[in-house]
Amino acid sequence: MRYLLELSYDGSNYQGWQIQPNGLTVQEVLNNAISVIVRQSIETIGCGRTDTGVHARQYFAHFDVENELPGNFKRSLNGILPYDIAVHDCQMVSSEFNSRFDAVSRTYEYQIIFEKDPFLNKHAVRWHADLDIDAMNKACVAMIGTRDFSSFSKVNTDVKHFDCNLMSARWYYRENILIFEVTANRFLRNMVRAMVGTLIMIGEGKINQEKFLEILDSGDRRNAGTSVPAHGLYLVSVEY
Fold this sequence. Notes:
The chain is of the alpha+beta class. The chain has 2 domains: about 1-95, 2-Layer Sandwich (Alpha-Beta Plaits), CATH 3.30.70.580; about 105-240, 2-Layer Sandwich (Alpha-Beta Plaits), CATH 3.30.70. About 25% of the residues lie in helices and about 30% in strands. It contains 5 helices and 10 strands. Strands 1, 2, 3, 4, 5, 6, 7, 8, 9 and 10 form a 10-stranded mixed β-sheet that branches. Helix 3 crosses helix 4 and helix 3 packs parallel to helix 5 (about 210-220).
């Protein structure tokens, strides 16, 4: 039997989602907790990777189990999981369903603040320079569509190609937090953080629109901006 979990987590204490040899990950903690309840070894399959320190407001993972889960499974699982991982829903799905490959889009947010805020210290990045939001949004338009995004990807990655269909990208304010929101069918390793770092170069007036297009078309990560810190990044929604 295959089940699908909807969860969220604060990534501050984890080396990302996927199990790593040298550090605690969300997947490892979740696998161990489910295994305790169902009394068999469980391996969850997530809807994608999140890097060290990245958060998820909505994340999906499926797993297979021999017997039907008890009615109190979600409550029992939340009782075992640490405070920074929460399961919101658990549903039986088709044995053919795959939380990673059946997803049609994913949406990320990056959060920037300009004033000191102790409550957002680990969950948003403080920026000290003024940013031209209109110029940054103009550059976002140029990225929309299907194209090679290798300029914003880590070089050492196991993907077969670097094409992504970017469906939307925009900067806007939510109260005192500057949000970069981006939706695509898939994301490359480090893609959003590199994208944000490059767009900020436009916002600070360090590069113009023409230079941004050159970076985008170059396919060379060395031409793009520095990756911004991980703790401002959130996976916020996944569509199936």
